[in-house]
Amino acid sequence: MKARRPALLQNVLEEVHAPGLKASERIVTGKNTSRECFEQVFLANYARVVRVLCRIVGDHARAEDLANEVFLKLYRQLMPTQAVDNVPGWLHRTATNLGIDALRASARRYHYEEAAAREQIQESVAESALDHSLRLETQERVRAVLAALKPVQAQLLLLRASGHSYKELAEMLDLEIGTIGTRLIRAEAAFEERYIRLYGRGEKL
Amino acid sequence: MNCLSESALRAYHDGELTRASSAEAEAHLSVCTRCREQLKRISETAGRVQRRLDLLDASDSRAPIDPHAALASFRAQHRDDEERASILQRLLERRWRPAWALGALGAILLVSLAFPVGRGLAQRILATLRVERVQPVRFDTTSFDENRPLQRMLSQLISDKVVIITDEKSQKVATLAEASRLAGFHVRVPHGLPDTSQFNVEGQHAFRTTIDRARLQDILDQSGRPDLLLPATIDGETISFQVPRGVRVQYGECAGHSPQTFNCTMLVEAPSPIVNVPADLNLEQLAEIGLQLAGMSAVQAREFCQTVDWKSTLVLPITPAVRSYEPVTVDGVQGTLMTPADRRGPGSVVIWVKDGIIYCLAGPGGSSDAIALADSLD
Q1: Cβ of B317 and A83 within 8 Å?
Q2: Structural class in CATH, domain A127-205
């Protein structure tokens, strides 16, 4: 049997058992623990994580801040190394999670839903500007509805919309694969119900 | 063939059925109007939601994304982390996994199970828990160590739900007086050791966690305790932790030693961490459950709980890393003396609490050396 490192009970014990080990040498990035590996993961995934977050929060600077937080979580992910078998999947999941949290936080701060619902389009604006502002308004509505859903439902919808298979969704969200179909149906029903409640049935898609 | 379930229809719509199941579903759909109509409804709703979510694609920024610049800025921001890991980071490390995860599970259970259903959440006043004494408890982590799905669920839960509020770095200081000033309490040192001591003031930390009932319930199921049902009202409740500054004093070679020449003595002293939880907890009942999770029988757990005040007692998990432990009188109070199983590290470790400060002393000698040293603190 492979010798197991004893579970330590005190900081003191830990310190004298592993003296002088730098935090950077303990960075957990999938199955490797080296700093180089973390940096490779960062470079390979950063742009994708920013894009995922930008879709959710709709603001590039905010998306970059949140992407930093995602990588900081990975950097400090010093819990079971084996738990992060699939680093890109973990990053995507954590990014949607943080993105939804951010949406919910701004919904609380600014009464997002009401603001988006009240927004009026000025009749005098030019056609292209009208299209643009309509699109922005609809995006804000979608975000407001996502913020109002249960976080796990919002996350499921976003991850599925980015093309993840049931198997991937089950692994990323720690769900039974057999429940994904039903969960999607419920999440979509909740999304529609919320959307109609806030904005009515008028909008055609 | 019976009608298709909602979930099968959805999986069919998403192309997620196996080829055989898909053919079967198709055959059934060709003869069943009801299922065809349901599939149509599912497909229409899915389409409408997907189109709305697709609108978000347009918010994809055109701004350039430069991963190299981002990495450079990330490095600059977190350079200090690389120099010295904070206590919190060390606590979250892999080596701590079983003790920490069990502790987290225990803490969450403690809080969650006590809430009476239907109570107004906002009316609860927080109770403050402070450590006044230490109580060793044997923790059997074997089954936990081997339960990988459980580890994964817990680590994911901690990663998602623990929000770090303060994470101050530790700093080296030159003198005892400076250490006391920064830490905000009188730091005591042992007599009879060389003057070449090193003082580290460990930063203060604060973090909070929010209860996610559904995921906790899954964790209980995975731990083999589906019989414990969590009340719905706990969802979203917050527990906060504050860890004040502490001081670590080191003598001898504490870095880069080899097992043959181990001569590091380390003393950590810190005020009690403070845990804020909703006030109306039946701590005793919850502790019983936690102890059963850690391997005690129901009767043992109940007997044990009757002797302990949970509002002021720190449970010291005695894992397989500890070969033996015993109660001792040290520094005028009762403490716990432990002999680690790993002979490459300290020979003995003694932990006690006096005047609100938790002390932990680890050294190369045997039990009498450790106690004599602890008794010599000025």
Answers
A1: no
A2: mainly alpha
A157: nearest CB among B53, B94, B99: B53
Please tell me the distance from the alpha carbon of residue A179 to that of residue A184, in angstroms, as a whole number.
9
Q: Which residue of B has its CA nearest to A100?
A: B160
pLDDT tens, chain B, 378 aa long:
688 999 999 999 999 998 999 999 999 999 999 999 999 999 999 999 998 888 887 665 567 888 988 888 888 777 655 444 444 444 444 444 344 444 544 444 433 333 332 222 222 334 455 556 666 666 665 666 666 677 677 667 766 777 778 878 778 898 889 999 999 999 999 887 776 678 888 888 787 877 787 887 787 777 777 776 666 666 676 777 787 888 888 887 765 444 455 677 888 888 877 777 766 555 566 667 667 766 677 787 778 777 777 667 766 666 666 778 888 999 999 888 888 776 666 788 888 888 888 888 888 888 888 899 999 988
**3-state DSSP call for residue A9?**
coil
The position carrying tokens 């010599």 is: B376
**How far B255 CA lies from chain A's nearest CA (Å)?**
5
Strand partners for B220: none
- Smallest Cα–Cα separation from B319: which of B146, B141, B148? B141
Select A21-110's CATH number: 3.40.50.300, 3.40.50.360, 1.10.1740.10, 1.10.3720.10: 1.10.1740.10
How close B125 gets to chain A, by Cα (Å)?
Answer: 23
Residues found in chain A: 205
Nearest 5°: phi and psi at B278?
A: -55, 145
Which residues touch B243 (CB under 8 Å, ≥6 apart)? Answer: B87, B88, B204, B205, B206, B270, B273
Contacts of B98 in chain A (CB under 8 A): 7
Closest CB to A181 among B10, B91, B318? B10
In chain A, ranges of CATH 1.10.10.10 domains: 127-205
Strands B238-243 and B205-210: antiparallel
- At position B169, the amino acid (one-letter code) is K
Q: Between A and B, how many residue pairs show a Cβ–Cβ distance under 8 A?
A: 242
Q: Where does CATH 1.10.1740.10 sit in chain A?
A: 21-110
Mutate to test the interface with B, among A1, A15, A46, A49 (most CBs of B within 10 A): A15
Facing residue for B95 by CB, picked from A14, A68, A174: A14
Q: Give A 14-33 residues with CB within 8 A of chain B.
A: 14-20, 22-24, 26, 28
Q: Is A139 on the interface with B (CB under 8 A)?
A: yes
- Return the SS3 of B286: helix
Which contiguous run of DSSP H or E holds residue B331? none
User: B246-251 and B198-202: which strand pairing?
Assistant: antiparallel
Nearest to B71 among A42, A51, A191 (CB): A42
ipTM of the complex: 0.72
Rg of chain B's alpha carbons, rounded to an integer? 27
Q: CA of B54, closest CA in chain A: separation in Å?
A: 8
